[in-house]
Design brief:
Elements (H helix, E strand, L loop, with lengths): L4 H35 L18 H9 L1
Length: 67
């Protein structure tokens, strides 16, 4: 089902807000991660935060190793 022009405009607005807020939210997450390490440095269940960045060459490297 196709989106109406109003729905498309609203979606674009929401995506723009998310795109603009992403760096600030990443900083908040990083600060919280640092703070939690300072408060409880010996956390056995600690899992590092993933950056969310994807390595574009990761798939190509996998193909080379298979040959």
């Amino acid at each position: 089902m196709a989106l109406t022009p109003e729905q498309r405009r609203r979606r674009d607005q929401v995506e723009t807000v998310i795109r603009l807020m992403a760096p600030a939210l990443n900083l908040i997450l990083a600060a919280g991660d640092r703070l939690s390490r300072i408060i409880s440095p010996d956390d056995d269940e600690y899992y590092p935060v993933r950056s969310g960045l994807v390595d574009p060459d990761a798939g190509r490297r996998g193909e080379r190793t298979r040959r």
